[in-house]
Amino acid sequence: MKDKIISKASDLFLKLGFKSVTMDDIAGEMCISKKTIYKYFCNKEILIEESTEMVHKTVHEVINTIVAKDHNAIEENFEIRKMFKEMFKVADTSPLYQLKKHYPEIYQKVMSRELDQCNMCFTQNIQKGIQQDLYRKDLNVETYVKFYYSLIFSIKENTISERDATKLELQALEYHTRAMATLKGIAELEKQLLKTNT
């Protein structure tokens, strides 16, 4: 039951916002009493924490599945972006923006969790791209990882509309890729952009 509550709460939080969804809403959606929810979660903050943890795990499981498909490094980034777009398309307001505004302590926990995971993903992607001759060999990988991380999370936490955030993220991905790409990489980027816009 606990996992079902977390799952339903995650859906509602992403769809309607962390602030606006109440324990009554979750109970009503699940046709259970509010008392049942409080049996597992003594307050809404704890439920939000557990929900964000579940979303984090799901996101990174899907990322690992995409990476395992062995796309080239640039296509891999576009596939990951597509997954995020699909996953959060129901949200009107950017979930990270809401967390930062209404639950700053939970937001800090989420960000410290994301930092390590994302840095590892970005580093592996850049190293893979260098090996595939899509990214330049003279890159300072650590610096480019920091640049991209700062860019993406700045968009996510400062853009209210999820739709606007999605558009900006595509532009950030293009910017990031162009900055690193070889001529072969630019050709692959153009191919991916064409696929995205059709």
Low-confidence stretches: none
Can you tell me the CATH architecture? Orthogonal Bundle
Mean pLDDT: 91
Kindly provide the radius of gyration, computed on alpha-carbon positions and rounded to a whole number of angstroms: 19 Å
| Number of helical segments with 4 or more residues | 10
What features would you describe in this structure?
There is one protein chain. With 198 residues, the chain is mainly alpha-helical. It has a single domain, classed as Tetracycline Repressor, domain 2 (Orthogonal Bundle), CATH 1.10.357. It contains ten helices and no strands. Helix 1 packs across helix 4, helix 4 packs antiparallel against helix 5 and helix 5 packs antiparallel against helix 9. It comes from Flavobacterium granuli. Pfam families: TetR_N. InterPro entries: Homeodomain-like_sf (IPR009057), HTH-type_Tx_Regulator (IPR050624), HTH_TetR (IPR001647). This is AcrR family transcriptional regulator.
Task: Quickly describe the structure.
With 198 residues, the protein is mostly helical.
